[in-house]
Design goal:
Layout: E1 3-8, H1 15-28, E2 33-36, E3 39-40, E4 44-46, E5 53-55, H2 57-65, H3 72-75, E6 78-79, H4 86-92, H5 99-110, E7 115-119, H6 134-141, E8 145-150, H7 155-168, E9 173-179, H8 188-198, E10 203-207, H9 215-219, H10 225-230
Parallel strand pairs: 1-7, 1-8, 2-7, 3-6, 8-9, 9-10
Antiparallel strand pairs: 4-5
Helix pairs in contact: 1-2, 5-6, 7-8
Length: about 240
């Protein structure tokens, strides 16, 4: 399977923003790119597509950017209304999320595209059920991982721990993105330099703070060349 697993150092670090940029950059290389949001919370009921159900804004953005039309329930198999940790939201409604469901959905999407961009939820070790996390899904898919680092106080520890955990599971950290999520952060240059020296993976891009930036503008700040060396793209 050809794909990329996008994770983050925490929630609200811009994973969707970067995933959309990566998709656009790969599409600019002539690739057919699809997306998947395996698990989401903070959803709203919507039936505008003729299929009434819970919809997540991040997942809808990924769907709109995709090169092919993927049924929402395949793109986002587990969607929950409360904006809380997904496994807790699942418990509230009596659902037990299963990795097998997510793997099959991803395989279905992969059959329709050159590359699948899978965006996780929260950080690297967000629980899926009582025993498994989204890291276990990444291991099952065997996709190289892109780590989105929200540049703020604490990001050094969060990024280095995440990278260590990714590698400990036998996965490839294909690259990382420095996402400037605020204009109020101090020592931005020093933080990015410290991470560049320690993460031992390509810096795919430094994304300046811009709430209005769309996928194309974000793509302009990204270098997906190193990713293409890590993924197996169908001829």
């Amino acid at each position: 399977m050809a794909g990329i697993f996008v994770t983050g150092t925490d929630t609200d670090v811009g994973k969707t923003h970067i995933a959309l940029g990566l998709m656009a950059a790969l599409q600019q290389r002539g690739l057919c790119v699809a997306a998947m949001k395996p698990v989401s919370a903070g959803c709203e009921l919507d039936g505008s597509d003729g299929d009434q159900g819970l919809r997540n804004d991040d997942a809808l953005q990924l769907s709109a950017q995709s090169s092919v039309a993927i049924p929402y329930r395949t793109l986002n198999p587990y969607a929950f209304e409360p904006a809380i940790a997904p496994h807790i939201a699942a418990q509230v409604v009596g659902v037990t999320m299963q990795l097998g469901v997510l793997e099959r959905a991803c395989a279905e999407i992969e059959n329709q595209a050159d590359v699948v961009v899978v965006e996780g939820a929260g950080g690297w070790l967000v629980p899926v059920n009582a025993r498994q996390t989204l890291a276990d899904l990444a291991v099952a898919l065997r996709f190289p991982v892109v780590l989105v680092v929200g540049i703020r106080l604490g990001c050094l520890n969060h990024a280095l721990l995440s990278a260590e955990s990714i590698r400990a599971r036998g996965l490839t950290l294909a690259g990382w993105v420095a996402n400037e999520i605020s204009t109020q952060v101090v020592c931005v240059e020093e933080n990015i330099t410290a991470l560049s020296q320690r993460l031992l993976a390509p810096l795919l891009g430094r994304i300046p703070y811009d709430r209005q930036a769309g996928a194309e503008r974000t793509a302009a700040s990204l270098d997906v060349g190193p990713l293409l060396e890590s993924i197996s793209v169908k001829p």
